[in-house]
Known about the structure:
- This protein is 37% helix and 14% strand.
- By secondary structure, it is an alpha/beta fold.
- The protein folds into 2 domains: 2-231, Cobalamin-binding domain (Rossmann fold, 3-Layer(aba) Sandwich), CATH 3.40.50.280; 256-486 and 563-635, tm_1862 like domain (pyruvate-formate lyase- activating enzyme).
- It has a 6-stranded mixed beta sheet. A 4-stranded parallel beta sheet has the order 15-16-17-18.
Amino acid sequence: MTATVDQLLTRVSKPARYTGGEWNSIVRDWESHPVRFALCYPDAYDIGMSNMGIGILYDLLNKVDDVLCERAFAPWEDMEAEMRREGVLLWSLENRRPLRDFDVVGFTLQYEMTYTNILNMLDLAAIPVFAKDRTDEHPLVVCGGSGGFNPEPLAPFVDAFVIGEGEDTVVELAGRVREWKKQGTPRAERLRELLAMPGVYVPSFYEPRFDHEGHFAGLEPTVPDAPKVIHRRIVEQLPPPLVKPIVPFLQTIHDRAAVEIQRGCTQGCRFCQAGMIYRPTRERTPDEVAEAARQLMANTGYDELSLLSLSTTDHSEIVPMVEKLTSTFPNLKVSIPSTRVDSFSVDVANAVAKGKKHTLTLAPEAGSQRLRNAINKLVSDDDLLGAAENAFERGWTGIKMYFMVGLPTETMDDVAGIIDMAQKVKAAGRKHLGNRARVRVSTSNHVPKPHTPFQWARQDTAEELDPKHKLLRDGCRSSGIEFSWNDPVDSFIESVLSRGDRKVANAVYEAWRRGAKFDAWSEFFKAGVWHEAFAAAGIDTAWFAHREWDTNEPLPWDHIDTGVNKSYLRGQWRDVHSNQTVADCHHGSCNVCGMQDFDTLRGEPGVADCVVKLDRLVEMRRAAKKYEGDMIELV
């Protein structure tokens, strides 16, 4: 097979996507490592290699004595055509073995618009697309990631879903595979045994019910030992940071070293799924981050480090962390990809900026204070304008602002507020930089996500979104502000896949069968194919996307427990219409979201580990005050 692969590489663009052999990649002997995992990302190599989750699991599994873990990505169109013409099966990068030779083939679910790529990769690997058609000769197909928190639109294609954080689960799964292979356990028994693993959902042992109109009415276990609720897996303490990541041969989306400095977010933005499903907040210390940075520089040759978190400047020790990094590694460029919208965050960004300052990114999300209150984005006009003033005054030449349109309760006045805010930011820039100041507004269309307060919200139709986009286009153009937006059709399909039940899986299959793949890429996306697929599968798309859901109706993802109570989400949804906000519990009192009683965190009922204790809070604030002057000096 190797010679055939080498021949294919001469005929395609970016052959480095398929060669393997990168710096820090791990090639273990196939014969002496009987437990074999293939970690797959259902998008191009350039995208997938920027996913830290795959890197973490790859590193963990390859540290187990008898385990071999390799990678595979979705082949680009030219490579797929060559593979199908030559009859070459999709292979792993390290040993170039067909995926069907592995014990477990795992997919990361980060974005609904990659779902057809999963089916395409299975087909290219000669693994039956439907789980029911697989035999003892086929690997287990396992999925994890944020998309797994509503597993139903992929349920017929997947043997098992890992719900929550996978570090502990994959090592436990490797142990089970080891025993299965020793004992010759058949597939049916393997699936049955997976029912006993915490955080694992095996869809073949559950049957969806539908009412007389064909709408979802519930999900029932079909065997006695199938749990009615799957509780999310949580790692109590973050594992050691990944310090020896694979260095790609070609430029990827995030071409730099990275350290996850914090996991989880408690800001409570009502639209944000990640902020709900990754609670509680867990942090690394400045010393731990600095040591990781030292090893990363030595192991990769990178001179840029990204501090990863859902909101990096929310880290309770971000100031001493920045001080530690900038003093210890004067030649290291540190980037902060996610910040709050306030002057404090700009100060932190300035403290780590090296050389010429270009664009600072802020995410106000909504154009009016009323709407920001409704979505619980605790940012004021003064916060935003203060941050912009601070940035331009300190030499940043551009500001990019992210907003959403189509949010619940949004009016045209709220949309016009985006233009007004951008104009004020532009004026602040001109005051300091003249015509060199650049402001860009980027909008996405709101997609209601499971396990958030907005999971019951309706999505705006394309007809409702179009005048909002027109208002923004015209207003930004006349003000000299750059503007970009998402196609409402993309967002609509994402919404159906995000909140779909098991019937929607039929549409995913139909779309793939009709040629859908790489749907996240504009050059491949075919809206017509999806509309045909929904019609062929008998899916009422408006039911999933364009209505407000009743808070008491059964949801296709009710069997997945994130730790955040449904009653809490209901209360937050009610507060949308009264503009009631809830403070960040990381810096205040507990909001009683449910995580304070989530037993699987430490096995002790009622332990409120997600809430910062008062004495620790006082200590952190004193530390921040102490370092505040030092940070200003660094700037």
